[in-house]
Design goal:
Strand order of the largest sheet of chain A: 1-2
CATH topology of chain A: ABC transporter involved in vitamin B12 uptake, BtuC
Shape of chain A: globular
Strand content of chain B: under 5%
Number of domains of chain B: 1
Distance between the termini of chain A: 40 Å
Number of strands of chain A: 2
Largest interface: A-B, 48 and 47 residues
CATH architecture of chain A: Orthogonal Bundle
Order of helices and strands of chain A: HHHHEEHHHHHHH
Distance between the termini of chain B: 64 Å
Order of helices and strands of chain B: HHHHHHEEHHHHHHH
Oligomer: heterodimer
Helix content of chain A: 55-70%
Number of domains of chain A: 1
Number of helices of chain B: 13
Shape of chain B: globular
Structural class of chain A: mainly alpha
Chain lengths: 297, 298
């Protein structure tokens, strides 16, 4: 049983990186906006299908497809923020929950109508031969996933912690009125943060498309996974959420891969881990693993 | 004259009436928690599923009769809500929504993966309709009459509750819970009871759904169903008794004309989903200032 442990850990790092890319944007948005975006997983799905549209249906090269898909998602981000979120950010706190749920459902229905409900996948250029390091197999794509996640988080960390833009983001997250009083434009920062979050989600969606496959109905379960990661890390805490995503990836891979004395968990339950994590975290540590402040729940 | 009665009592109209009846129970019970109580309960369909599966399993594998099956469905769904309420009602706003969503997802996952009990995606076929007072329930008109008894009972209960002291407490909690607590309303108890009643009614609807279709599988209890119920309550105005009744009939019948366009089911499903979610968004947009009462804080 222990022989496969290194392989499971590497797999966990790959899954965790994808979940981290998907959920970090959610945490960043929540920090500034204090609105839970139920359509976050659906944006991943739309991002993946947009990329699929350009690379497979229009057979454009990957670089061009990436640029076009990013542009499309950025435009979608601005639209979503202007139509589905900002008009409801003041007033009853139930409103944005309902509108983002409606948005997720609208996106799912549109993609189902356009691409059909069957499973699709993104074909790999030069089908990846697995590399082997000391008994652990990893494909070049998976190396790319881990490296790109590292680079993206390094850049994101730099921007958030040591740039003027990042200072306004953090100021708005900490004390919106004071920050706006000192001349920080909430709308501009929101646009930047929200679009970034959508692009990160779309990138994670494309990676899911390469690693496994695409289906219009995948959005809901990825929203829940991102919530699980964010609840573990503390709502709105970006670094905490990234750690939460890695923990989620680890738990999923260990539970399915290891057999506990002849009894192993059926693979179908893999997704259920996120849900159980959410419930346990809400019961025992609603402030997240790293939260220190008062209980907000 | 016979033409008209032929239309009114045709199998198709009776089928539609049964659907409206089932959704009237489901939507009005959601209206108690989501509408009156402003509790964003995303696990309502889970209660419905538990009711349906309880009846399906007990009537096929244990050959239980109608009354014990319906009672068991109501009790189990009610018990589920106590469990759900214990965890979720300690939470507020966003946490509450995520918690109930996760709860619903756990139930969906069990329906699909716990194959030894739920038969997974294959579902449970051959659920026999009961025979009551010598009436054959395979006759849809008889089934409709039986269902109507329960529909009227649930609606009457909701009406009485929402106009009574309990309904006022629930409404007060939604608007200003510190003030309500200061007036001596037991906040936890009121919300738990609302959850219990709402979930038990959903279990009842589930039981009838299983009997009506004779076959159930996990697809009937997907998240889309939750969005549909939410749409009914939002369109009818949350907390409004007659509004939700009217919007149930309106929204259940609305996509029926699509049937005559001869579309295949792969297009029809997403089209209905798009229609309902657009309506949900449009109504929330239009009524965004008044749809939910303003929450006040100390």
């Amino acid at each position: 049983m222990l022989e496969i442990l290194p392989q499971l850990l590497v797999n966990a790092l790959i899954t965790g990186s994808i979940y981290a890319l998907a959920s970090s944007g959610l945490a960043l948005t929540y920090g500034v906006l204090r609105i839970l975006n139920f359509a976050h997983g659906h944006v991943m799905m739309v991002g993946a299908y947009t990329f699929f549209f350009f690379t497979v249906e229009r057979s454009l090269p990957i670089a061009e497809s990436s640029i076009l898909a990013s542009l499309a998602i950025a435009v979608l981000g601005v639209l979503v923020l202007a139509v589905f979120i900002l008009p409801f950010s003041r007033g009853n706190s139930l409103l944005p929950l309902v509108t983002t749920i409606a948005l997720g459902s609208i996106l799912e229905a549109l993609v189902s109508m356009w691409f059909g409900v069957s499973v699709r996948s993104l074909p790999l250029p030069g089908a990846g031969d697995s590399l082997e390091f000391a008994g652990v197999f990893i494909t070049p794509l998976q190396v790319g996933i881990i490296l790109s996640a590292l680079v993206i988080f390094a850049v994101l960390g730099f921007v958030v912690h040591s740039s003027p833009l990042g200072r306004s983001v953090r100021a708005l997250a900490e004390h919106p009125q004071a920050a706006q009083g000192l001349g920080v434009s909430r709308t501009k920062v929101l646009l930047g943060v929200f679009t970034t979050s959508m692009l990160l989600a779309a990138y994670a969606g494309v990676l899911v498309g390469y690693e496994t496959n695409l289906q219009p109905t995948m959005g809901g379960s990825y929203s829940l996974k991102a919530f699980a990661a964010m609840i573990l890390g503390g709502l709105g805490n970006m670094w905490g959420t990234i750690v939460g995503a890695l923990i989620l990836g680890l738990l999923e891979n260990l539970s399915i891969g290891l057999d506990f004395g002849g009894y192993s968990l059926p693979a179908g339950y893999k997704d259920a881990f996120a849900y159980v994590i959410i419930l346990c975290a809400l019961l025992f540590r609603p402030q997240g693993l790293f939260g220190t402040g008062e209980r907000r729940a | 004259m016979s033409d008209i009665s032929g239309i009114i009592f045709s199998e198709y109209t009776i089928h539609l009436a049964i659907l409206v009846g089932l959704y009237a129970i489901l939507a009005q019970s959601l209206n108690l928690t989501f509408g009156l109580g402003q509790l964003f309960n995303l696990a309502h369909v889970a209660s419905y599923a538990i009711g349906a599966y309880t009846t399906a399993l007990l009537s096929t594998e244990a050959q239980w009769q109608f009354v014990p099956c319906v009672a068991a469905s109501i009790l189990l769904s009610g018990a589920f809500s106590v469990f759900l309420g214990t965890i979720a009602l300690r939470l507020t706003n966003d946490y509450f929504a995520i918690g109930t969503l996760a709860f619903g997802a756990v139930v969906s996952s069990l329906l699909i993966n716990w194959r030894s009990v739920t038969h997974g995606v294959l579902g449970i076929p051959g659920i026999p309709r009961p025979e009551i007072l010598g009436l054959d329930m395979y006759q849809n008109s008889n089934f409709l009459a039986l269902l109507l008894v329960f529909v009227v009972a649930v609606q009457a209960l909701y009406f009485a509750i929402s106009r009574g002291p309990f309904g006022r407490s629930l409404r007060a909690l939604a608007e200003y819970d510190q003030a309500a607590a200061a007036l001596g309303i037991n906040t936890r108890l009121v919300r738990n009871v609302a959850f219990l009643l709402s979930s038990a009614a959903a279990g009842l609807a589930g039981s009838f759904f299983a009997y009506y279709l004779n076959y159930i599988d996990p697809t009937s209890f997907a998240f889309g169903e939750m969005i549909f119920l939410m749409t009914i309550v939002v369109v009818g105005r949350p907390g409004s008794f007659f509004g939700v009744l009217l919007s149930t009939a309106f929204l259940v019948l609305l996509p029926e004309p699509l049937r005559f366009l001869n579309l295949d089911s792969a297009t029809l499903g997403p089209m209905r989903q798009l229609l309902y979610s657009l309506i949900l968004f449009a109504v929330v947009w239009w009524k965004r200032r008044s749809i939910f009462p303003e929450q006040r804080e100390v």
